[in-house]
Amino acid sequence: MQIEKYIAERKKTKEILIMTHQIIGYPDFETNEKAIDCFYKNGVDMIELQIPFSDPVADGPAFAKSNQAALEKGVKVKQCLDFIEKISGKYPITFLIMTYYNILYQYGVPQFVKKCKEINVKGIIVPDAAIDEAHEYYEGCSNEGISAITIASPYSDKSRIEKLSIAGDGFIYYVPRKGVTGCKTDFNLDVLDKISLVKEYSGKNVAVGFGIQNQDDVKRLVGVADIAIIGSKIQKVIEDEGIEALDNFIKSICSVN
């Protein structure tokens, strides 16, 4: 419920909230921290921090490569959690962890969820945590007061969306197209109508990710989605132009409000 209250409070003064993304340890922890500082100073509302994994099934080629690069440099789960603890203590903003179920399984699911609470993480996104199988995870999040974010797709019917809403908390993460991260999405009327249905069927706030490239994409979502998630484009800006170029890009995205 913490995230739901936070979203409601932020939306009193904003038409749409902005959530940004970083893969922890890529290209390095220093760049991660500079990016987070940029996000915070420009008014980003939530930050999704991804713990690298060797088989990130929901991620496109760019993120898969970045996950692998971080792992090859020796980035460990403990380092990631220590980094999040440091950052969450420094910036008064809502942080979420994104990773894959094997990370939780190896760490110990109850222990991982408890650790998230200790380091001030408000939500967890685990794309491969099936709602009808990962009971330990969903129950653990509920018990610890952490939002387990569930994911809907264009193929999720009303019954499925209702089940996702019951299993999870905070908001529904809607993926507006088939495939993985990193590709451009056409936010046409069909896509916008589906987002509206997800919101209606779930009774929850809806965040939209996968394919948001610029300010115009975010503007298309205003009045339909509650949260716009930008990930791959941020990584591309940093890779192509350097961390210094991120400020203007994030300013542009946040100026929608």
What secondary-structure arrangement, pairings included, does this model have?
Elements: H1 2-10, E1 17-23, H2 29-41, E2 46-50, H3 61-72, H4 77-90, E3 94-98, H5 101-107, H6 109-118, E4 123-125, H7 135-144, E5 147-152, H8 158-167, E6 172-174, H9 189-202, E7 206-208, H10 215-221, E8 227-230, H11 232-241, H12 246-254
Parallel strand pairs: 1-2, 1-8, 2-3, 3-4, 4-5, 5-6, 6-7, 7-8
Describe this structure in words.
Keywords: Amino-acid biosynthesis, Aromatic amino acid biosynthesis, Lyase, Tryptophan biosynthesis. This is Tryptophan synthase alpha chain. The chain has 257 residues and is of the alpha/beta class. It has a single domain, classed as TIM Barrel (Alpha-Beta Barrel). The protein is built from 12 helices and 8 strands. It has an 8-stranded parallel beta barrel with strand order 1-2-3-4-5-6-7-8, surrounded by 7 helices. β4 (123-125), α7 (135-144) and β5 (147-152) form a beta-alpha-beta unit. The longest helix has 14 residues, at 77-90. The chain starts with a helix and ends with a helix. The model is unreliable at 179-183 (pLDDT under 50).
Summarize the structure.
This protein is α/β, with parallel strands linked by helices and 257 residues long. The chain contains twelve helices and eight strands.
Please indicate the count of domains.
1
The chain-level structural class is: alpha/beta
The strand count comes to 8
CATH topology: TIM Barrel
CATH class: Alpha Beta
CATH architecture: Alpha-Beta Barrel
Q: Tell the overall outline.
A: globular
CATH homologous superfamily (4th level) name = Aldolase class I
Strand content: 5-15%
Subunit arrangement of the protein = single chain
C-alpha end-to-end distance:
24 Å
What share of residues is helical?
40-55%
User: What do the pLDDT scores average to?
Assistant: 93
The low-confidence parts are 179-183
How many alpha or pi helices?
12
**What summary fits the major beta sheet?**
8 strands, parallel, barrel
Q: What pattern of helices and strands is seen along the backbone?
A: HEHEHHEHHEHEHEHEHEHH
Radius of gyration: 17 Å
Which sequence of strands runs across the widest sheet?
1-2-3-4-5-6-7-8
